[in-house]
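Retro notes - structure team

What went well: the batch runner handled both jobs without manual restarts.
What didn't: labels got mixed up in the shared folder, which is why I'm recording both outputs here explicitly, each with its sequence directly above its tokens.

Job 1
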Amino acid sequence: MTEGRPRVPPLVLVLTAIVSVQFGGALAATLVPHIGAGGSVLLRLAFATAILLVVARPRLRGRSRRAWLAVLAFGVALGLMNLAFYASLARLPIGVAVTIEFLGPLTLATALSRRLRDLAAVAAAAVGVVLISEALGTPVADLEWTGLGLAAVAGACWAAYILASRQVGREFASLDGLALAMVVALVLVLPFGLGSAPQWEAGDVAKGLGIAVLSSVLPYSLELAALRHLNPRVFGILLSLEPVAAALAGLLILGQRLHLTQLLGMGLVVLASALVMGAGQRRDPAESGG
């Protein structure tokens, strides 16, 4: 059902998804060195797709051409986003990769903005993300340009994911569209990860299952539900909380600690998100596309 007031506020759905995906990302950081980016993405998507197909049991008949095109676009965006970002992590410091990737949704938020305060929030979020990632402290000579390109591709796919998932939410009830899009994404990444299968151990497969739930099934489902009632511009800026959640996950799982400049950046990100939440709560429901 896509109309009416949601039982859980869309902002709560998005925030829960952000925390989940970043804890899944921290878990993935321990898997990529073992089986590579392609294998890690393949395991993640294989488990996530199987779970969603069992839960959603999507109906195939009676779908319009527009609905299938939306699923195809959503699935391609999902697959390429994950492949490009995981591959960039093999060539870039994770903070730099996250910063470059975030330019995708940040650019989308800026392009869709119509209010001066929204532009100020985007600027604050951008500065905060840079400070949190410590990208300014990384010498240019140490950066790998192929990695930068891959992170940029991931960012563009992230922006496409925001728009495509909203369209899928309009065309399909429940999780049907998401489950079908995951099949598309799985087929897309299969050639890139299947070669690493002989290296998989039981622990790797178990991590893949955990990553699938934390980074795919739970966040994508929550975001898909939220985007039925939330303007994609607001959603794009709210994603500025991703580095904050990543910092928390890194501290608890990987033992990574924040410096003073990173804490300042986190404050800017939280401020930007608070501004957007306030604007979203006063927005005309018709404008939010619900």
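Job 2
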Amino acid sequence: MTDNQTVQAYIDAWTQSIESITELLAPLPTDAWNRPTECPGWSVRDVVAHIIAVESELLGDPRPIHSLPRDLLHVTSEFARYMELPVDKRRCHTAPEMTGELEYTVIRRSRALRNARHEAADLVRWPAGPLSRDLPYADLLRNRVFDVWVHEQDLRRALGTPGNLDSAAALVSRDYLVEGLPKIVAKLAGAPAGSTVAFDVTGPVEFLRTVRVDANGRGAVDETVSLAPDVQFTLGWETYLRLACGRGRPGPVKVEGDEELAARVLANFVLTP
């Protein structure tokens, strides 16, 4: 796939996911907007507010002027405070105000993406408060696909309307999360040199990946089957997603091999900030 095709694939995946969110919200009764999601401290309304806020900031809109309450227990870092401010600002907004703002933001952002003249490698600003930095344009788009799709799934679980677990955005998110496996296994879990940890994921998105730790303690992912890994995890795709994103208590995980190493891997599985 060429760089231009990759960029377009990310835009298409983002479009499908964010339009699925607008369709999901259209018939939603007012009380459903207050349902809690698996994002700590965030309701359905809050997740939607977050999506609006990030896309608006990418459009160049100014951040709202707002004083954030100090008693929000789920806000534990400067990055979290940065993301929380535009969410808290919208907590008094009605359902029609939220859906109207989301639809208008999607229209504007879609137009901006169509008219953008960035090449895949061009550096653009990722607005994330203390974590802000310049990223290649293609990486920024991939980040937005991942974030929007993960929050689409947050909303679907909260509302009891499963779907799109095997969409184009789901496949982008799979690759994004697989890239983080070496960090989990080698760095965070401290797997010893020469060890192998396999992940056998089943369900709407199936894959088998092995993390191998080299003599210098660095991990790398490959798709070959390890006949006798030190640890093998077998789990469903949605469980894998929820583990990697720190979402509540996920479904069952079958563990074979070194139980101590497996426990360290599971204790450090969260990849999202």
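One thing worth noting from job 2: The mean pLDDT is 95.
We'll revisit the folder naming next retro.
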